Amino acid sequence: MSGTGSGKSSTFVEFVNVQKSYDGETLVVKNLNLQIQRGEFLTMLGPSGSGKTTTLMMLAGFEMATHGDILLDGQPINHVPPHKRGIGMVFQNYALFPHMTVAENLAFPLEVRGMGQAEREEKVQRVLDMVELGSFGARMPAQLSGGQQQRVAVARALVFDPELVLMDEPLGALDKNLREQMQYEIKHIHENLGVTVVYVTHDQSEALTMSDRIAVFNDGVIQQLAAPAVLYEKPENAFCAAFIGENNKLNGTVTSATKTSVKVKLETGETVTALPVNISGKKGETTTLSLRPERVTVNPRSKSLPNMFEGIVQEVIYLGDHIRTRLDIAGHDDFIVKIPNSAAHPALNPGTKVKVGWSAEDCRALDAVASA
Amino acid sequence: MSDVTADAGPSGPLLAADGTPLKKKLAQTTRQAKIRALLLTAPLVVFLLAGFVFPIGQMLWRSIHNPAFSDVLPNLAVALKTWDGGGVPGEDIFEIAVADLKQSREDRSIGRAATRVNYELPGSRSLFTSTARKVNKIDGPPYKEKLIELDKDWDDPVLWSILKRVSNDYTASFYLSAVDRKYDVNGNIVSEAEVQQIYVKLFMRTFWMSALITFLCFLLAFPVSYLLSVLPLRTSNLLMILVLLPFWTSLLVRTTAWIAMLQSEGVVNDILVTTGLVGDENRAQLIYNQTGTIIAMTHILLPFMILPLYSVMKTIPPSYMRAARSLGANSLTAFRRVYFPQTVPGIAAGTLLVFILSIGFYITPALVGGQDGQMISNLIAFHMQSSLNWSLAAALGGILLASVLILYWLYNKLVGVDNLKFG
What we know:
Oligomer: heterodimer
Order of helices and strands of chain B: HHHHHHHHHEEHHHHHHHHHH
Number of strands of chain A: 20
CATH architecture of the largest domain in chain B: Orthogonal Bundle
Number of helices of chain A: 8
Structural class of chain A: alpha+beta
Order of helices and strands of chain A: EEEHEEEHHHEHEHEEHHEEEEEEEEEE
CATH class of the largest domain in chain A: Alpha Beta
Shape of chain A: elongated
Number of helices of chain B: 19
């Protein structure tokens, strides 16, 4: 899925060794190499200050790369001004022009391209219908709700038929329900129009819902570039494991390793069998084991799993569809287990002892991070 | 299960939990807040009444009400009011005139009345003062004959028609003077002789110069405000202090500094001569004329333009310009179509502020304006301080005030006052 082998024709946007520094002392983006396929929905995900927005701004033309090339459809665009790049963009706070009506906002990109009035009106109406705001053309942006403004912003970025649309945390200002609804709407628009979308967010569930591929940014570097499922199931390093989804971390040292399995001794002396992912396999190497809370089995049959531990229930939180249980295991009192709310689920009470277990494949040995 | 607080009959008012009408209850609870608000503003309200509304009201009153004549010659004033006018009055009025003149001699107050008549009939002042000096010689009738003997001007019907007019305390003649008009002998409104027409011209010049100064301020302030609004906070704060620095310096000092800069032996001319741009013999006359007033006032009023512009520009997120550019507009189009329209409230506030301030400007034109750089306020000051014609000064001020109000009304029509943003 890395895109390197997909051939030149399908690569639409390409970053080649791109670096960006604002102050000449630190790099905000460090040697970025990224290929985005035509028609792809690619999300740049990362905490604030990770370089994802800077990358987007370089692509839009508002920031100049300090080093390296950005190619759009094979052409370097480093020195093409933003208005000649033909890239649609949705901004964080929509940036709808407050002194123009919705229709005027939408007609603006067509007008500056010198399109005739009749054609303009037709296109505006079509795009308004697409976002289901057909009768709102005469309104001022301030008269619209947040969700409606959001749709107008999306419509404006699409009305001049760009092949590439950038979205900079477009749903950040909406409340949760509306945000989820808009995620689907944007996803459907993407599917129907076939445009390439580069989407920036710090919300991992948004990224998982919408994207074809996700590039996880941290510290100016892409930590992992993969499809949502791969990213969640098979994080390649401790940052991705921690950033995407919930995650139990166990720190330890490698005692023995083969290609497919590794024995890790925890600080409290227990040994865990895990899958080696991002370790060299040397004896004595420190590693962080990553384990998803939903992959932990409660009360497994004895000997059915390679890792079996006994823990003490610390806290039980009822969340409707599942029950979140915090256990104290091997000196870690923040070990979370998600138990599905089914008729068969075991009733746990704080203070009681419980047996848990997990398979070696679900427990991934990653690079070491300081325990939280 | 009925809830008492929400229990309103089909027609009755909504009641609070204790049975009192909800409206009354609400008024009770908000009364204290209202009293507090009133008390907090009371000192300012009193101060404004005493220091602003009352004096201005009095001044405007003075522009139409001048009792100088009836104060000094009260009986004559009453008699003239009943006189039917036309020609020269008879013995009875002359008798009253003589008695009043004698009294005014005792009070030494004839000057006031003489000045008042002199406004209407220039050159008539000495008639009153000299007559008052000699009026004691008249010891009996016939008063008319004897008074005319003292000064034959008393036989002039024009004088008497004007005396009848000034015997009325209420007059529009100061407003007429302020727009270069006057009453002729028959009481018709006519234009002042051409050489004496100064006020309309001066009003026009004041408005024109103010408009020019406002425009120059706008030209200078717009880029600076833009820069201030986009710079990082630390830099923009530093620059803001430089903008505000003139505020903290005395107006007089700044104006005097411009004298040092602009006079013919001043810094600007010296530089021009040294660089050879201008010969030593024809140094530019940059001060004590309109140029001086315009330069100095533009400088002084610049912050009043920058501040509202800055405060509006500060609120325009850079993403608007970025959005416009990403949508395909070049920098110029993006500025013209997207950025500039959003600065209009600031421009409106700034121009209104600067224009209104400059039409009433006084010190700077007085110091650097010379002859043709004077503005209407300088003439108002002249009538307040030198000619002591306070009524005319008040009339000029009244016209100035009215034009500001009209301007404000026009602005409200065009821009909408709720669209103004001062900061």
